[in-house]
Amino acid sequence: LGLPTLDQDATLTKEELALCISSELEEFSGSTVMGVDMGMTCHITIGRVRPDSTIRVVHIEQVPASKVRARYLELRRVWSPRITVMDSYPYTETVLALQREDARLYGAVYVRQKGLNLLEVKDREKDAEEGEQDLRQVNVNRDKAFDSFMDFIRAGSLSKRSCPLDSEWIAQLTDMRRVKDWDTQTQEIVY
């Protein structure tokens, strides 16, 4: 009936992520991007996208949720990211407030969709006549995007400058995994 799912198909390993880390201090040019994973402790990652589409993580830090707004604005001034994607939950109000100050900030929402799309960008201007607010959101097709991210790392397309938070970075990235479940409506295994 098929092969069992292996652990390596469900998550990244510590060993795979450790291979991404180097003490090389070389500066990399390219477009700067920022990602923020929200929670009681917010994890901020800044990377440089190189011309060959590989990414070099140049800065990470952990910030208490109570201080993430101020720190985000400071980091934006220092790094000038071309685009930022911020987890919309559980602090949606923080994302909306920061979007009023940063037109290049998109709130991320995990979705489960069939098809090949990894993500869908929703960018809408405020329309008072239609009663619509500004919307800058990225719907991330969770499992397909995660599969693509695992492939990206395994292909050697992500590197990270070593820092004191390396073990926390690895722990955070190994925490996400695919979960196998049986869909009673479609009678198939879904992740």
Topology (SSEs and partners):
Blueprint: H1 7-10, H2 14-18, E1 21-22, E2 31-37, E3 41-49, E4 55-64, H3 68-79, E5 83-87, H4 92-101, E6 105-111, E7 119-124, E8 135-141, H5 142-154, E9 158-161, H6 166-175, E10 181-183, E11 188-190
Parallel strand pairs: 1-9, 2-5, 4-9, 5-6, 6-8
Antiparallel strand pairs: 2-3, 3-4, 7-8, 10-11
What would your notes on this structure say?
There is one protein chain. The chain is α/β, with parallel strands linked by helices and 191 residues long. It has six helices and eleven strands. The chain has helices at residues 7-10, 14-18, 68-79, 92-101, 142-154, 166-175; strands spanning 21-22, 31-37, 41-49, 55-64, 83-87, 105-111, 119-124, 135-141, 158-161, 181-183, 188-190. The longest helix has 13 residues, at 142-154.
Based on DSSP secondary structure assignment, what is the total number of beta strands?
11
Identify the overall geometry: globular
Q: What is the SS-derived class?
A: alpha/beta
Main-sheet strand order equals 1-9-4-3-2-5-6-8-7
Compute the number of helices. 6
Largest sheet: 9 strands, mixed
Low-confidence stretches: 1-6
Strand content: 25-35%
Q: On the 0-100 scale, what is the average pLDDT?
A: 87
Proportion in helices:
25-40%
The secondary-structure element order is HHEEEEHEHEEEHEHEE
Oligomer: single chain
**Rg estimate, integer Å:** 18 Å
Terminal CA distance: 17 Å
